Known about the structure:
The chain is an alpha+beta fold. It has one helix at 9-28; strands at residues 39-43, 48-50, 69-72, 77-90, 95-105, 108-115. It has a four-stranded antiparallel sheet with strand order 1-4-5-6, with no helix packed on it. A hairpin with a 4-residue loop joins strand 4 (77-90) and strand 5.
Amino acid sequence: MRANLIIRPRRLAAALTAVAAAGLAGLAVPQPAQAAAGDLSYVLNHTNVRVCGSVRQIQCPDGAGPNGVMGSVVGDQWDRTWCWRDGEWAGEPATNRWFKVTANTTAGWKTGWVSAAQVPIQAFVPWCSSWN
Length: 132
């Protein structure tokens, strides 16, 4: 015995539309970007790499050079960016956002803090829980 299959055009169209909508729904909703420590940011030439997010040595730990500067970035460069933190306002345009980067400086490769004002192309990285 064979069952008769009756296909009604309106129901078929509605079913196909629902299936297509469900399939496209996943594509239409943007997925949140994942912050990845170590992604690259573009840091400008002569940017000071500091021991913390401050332009005043008194704000930074002992052992820093003048005003907490460990060295200056040599040439515009793509640098590993580890995380970000808000600190003292600095730069032009002024911002209180700082990125922890590893950069080639006048004192060799250093990992320290640069003002976001000197980072025109910024990696999407996680927040830092401390200045260390």
